[in-house]
Amino acid sequence: MKDFSLEQSGNVAVLAVSGPVTVERACELKEILMKALQGADQVVFDLEGMTEVDLSCLQILCSAHRTATRLNKSITLGNVRPEVFTSALECSGFERHTGCVLDTTKSCLWVKEKEKNVV
Amino acid sequence: MAGLIESNRNAFKEEAYELLSELEASLLELEEKPDDRELIGRVFRAMHTIKGSGAMFGFDRISRFTHEVETVYDLVRNEKMSVTRELVNLTLAARDIIRSLLDAADEDDATDIKRADEVVAALRRLVGCEEGSQPTCVKTETQAKCTDTPGNPPSSPVTYRIRFRPPFDIFHRGIDPLFLLDELKGLGKCRIVAQTGSVPSINEFDPEGCYTYWDAILTTDRGINAIKDIFIFVEDGALDIVVIDKEGELDDENSYKKLGEILVEQGDISFDELRKTLSEQKKLGELLIEKGLIASDKIEAALLEQQHMREQKELRQKAEAASSIRVASEKLDGLVDLVGELVTVQARLSQYASLRKDSELLLISEVVERLTADLRDRTMNIRMLPIGTTFSKFKRLVRDLSQELGKQIELTTDGAETELDKTVIEKLNDPMVHLIRNSIDHGIETPEERSEKGKPPVGRIHLSASHSGASVLIQIQDDGAGLDREAIRAKAVEKGLIGPESELSEKEIFALILAPGFSTAQKVTNVSGRGVGMDVVKRSIDALRGQIEISSKNGEGTTVTLILPLTLAIIEGLLVRIGKDHFVLPLSVVKECVELTEEDAAEAHGRHIANVRGRIIPYIKLRERFGINGYVPDIEQIVIVEIGDDNIGFVVDAVIGEHQTVIKSLGAFYKHVEGVSGATILGDGTVALILDVSKIAMLAEEEEKTCFRI
Which residues on chain A are in Cβ contact (under 8 Å) with B191? Predict the structure, then answer.
């Protein structure tokens, strides 16, 4: 069970990952994300089956989000977030209060749920 | 100069004693949890501190000896040796030697030196055999030197700002940057923000490249080298470390740097840009982002730094606020004395004010009264210590004694946080040692005996402390053999303490074991059985104005309860008058006051017995007892006092009321006066004696008996 699967219905594509999502599979992840963004307006990244994650995955997601924003599309994370993912977010310092300059739609993947006010 | 050195030496001694008792507790815990790294660290640090400050103040022998023990724990700490029972035993022995070296710091005691040499030899043997099994182990001498080299990490925490820009191809080198960050977090309190500004859109994205860099704020006491060590496999340019706060430096300022200052300092924005933006008077962070001058993650990093420093400062302030100062107990005693005087003067003021019928004066006197009461409570509170420190000493006692006697005993405690006056705690130590020794030696059986009786092989001793009104109850409970009533009785008859026919209640029988020279143990062991224990206990508890209660079930165990007053300096008293003299009875034992008329007395046909709501209460006429002559009022008062299970009345002329009694000792000259436990000074400057009611009752009882015999 270490597949990336892409299912599309209408404008919504669900990209489900399972097993380790690390640098060894970074190229594969990039390809499938590009495909998802080409085919649909709304991409949901389902990470329930994720067993391991590293910096490469976080970077690709960040990049995909920027691309989506520029194309007026959206990418969101699934609601079920495995412990490995949340702890990687915390450890890597990706977690933050506001999105970056490019995040014009306020949909940054890394913004903490409850804290949205700053400065 | 000599005085200064002397006071430093004393400070070291005090610190060392404290460290030693901590060490003991840690060791006992370590014995149960030999793999607990935290505990091993604590033991090591205690040894290290004793060694270091010992050498500084000229306690060379202690320092040299402690060094040997520390060396072993360094091996343990580095997982080159494991914690065994033998090691714990040796370390406990070593602790005792350090203690006695401290006690006799200025003399040469040959036995200590010999014992120290033995322990050192044993420790070396222990290290030796461990080394045999692990040939990689370095010689102990060099090991110990490592910990002493000058490059030692500074002990006070420093806050660093770290910018880590890993090379683009870091993944290809097989390094996971998150792993490095995780290690960084292990050094101390750390906040990390990823800077993702250069992540490109997905078409240009190289999945195996690293686009991210990090800003971290780390507060650690491990030193800059520890940080550099983590990033040892990435080249120098990748790392930028700045010290932003050394311990305490920033505390004088009102708050940490402003957001803008941090950003300018980091070089993320120029000062001019900052000033221009600031002049527009909006929230700086939002403005900067809106203007596109700076990426939000940079703001994020700066904000986090601000927050981190604020929290750090708060933490430090909290620690400072919670910290304590060491005060010589004489100073406290002086304070208590003064407060005592103040309470006395205040009583006088209140008395005077109420006589004068001057409402203004009355008002002032009431305020003074309230403040004095507060001051008194606070002052008494300062002297209160939790009894837990005493409890933890007994762990060692139980461990050593039970090993010596081949018994298995578990000590549990309850209510360690119960506070008692410092003097009471100090004086409580010896009697409690006696009682626990008794429980271990006479009470709890050997594992074989216990198994035969169907009890678990491990015996239990439970120490508990709790408040009960103005007293503290301390219980020593064991699940041993219990007291043998018949044996006690037989022994008491043999010793002539009681007549062969006398009938005694269970309580009275148990009270017999408190008599001097009483021991039912068949043989004298090195622990107890000499018959000096229990009467010493009784005397010490009496001296503390406390009581002892014993209850026991044969075969199931014994419970000794010590009832002690909270403090020795001030008690709530009941002030009474006989003729022109005033006396104080401790309010804690007073149950009620009733009138005694001449008719009542006549009804009893000359016997000193009163009928109080159908109950017969014997009374003692204090007027007769103290030989006070003069006019006897028609209606006298009986103060009914509870002594043990009995109620006894004390007849006085008048009851004046509650009185905050500051206890003054009577001085050596009056040491042998029985029935009086102290004196106090009243508002008008006269002296009132504080009555020892149980003693008076006992004396009266004895006199009566002699009368009958004649």
Answer: 93
